[in-house]
Amino acid sequence: MVYPAKPDITRLLREFDPQLTVAAQQQDRLLELLYAELQATARGLMSRERIEHTLQPTALVHEAWLKLINQEQVQWQDRAHFLGIAARCMRQVLVDHARSHGAAERGGDFRQVTLDEGLLSGVSQDLELLALDECLNQLAGLDPRAAQVAEMRIFGGLTVAEIAHNLAVSKRTVDGDWAMARLWLSRELAAD
Question: Which of 92, 123, 126, 87 is nearest to 110 (CA)?
Answer without folding.
Answer: 126
